[in-house]
Amino acid sequence: MASKLQTLTIKQYKDNGYFVLNLIRTNHNGIPDLVAFKEGEKPIFIECKEKTDTLKPIQEYMGRLVQKYGAEYVLVKEKWLYL
Fold this sequence. Notes:
Blueprint: H1 4-15, E1 19-22, E2 34-37, E3 44-48, H2 57-68, E4 72-76
Parallel strand pairs: 3-4
Antiparallel strand pairs: 1-2, 2-3
């Protein structure tokens, strides 16, 4: 089940023309929560963290890994996301 922050993030990306997938269960630990696609742009992997939640080392590693392979990585930790 998506958190309120994830739901808001999905809505904001969709409102800006992105196709957004919620990566609920994957074959790797630490994969970001969402991936957003928009024609002509790099995929954006998005990790959503509530204000009191912390990024785990495996999540930091996966963020660097997706960037290494040419995708964008965004950590959403605020209540509102502005695109």
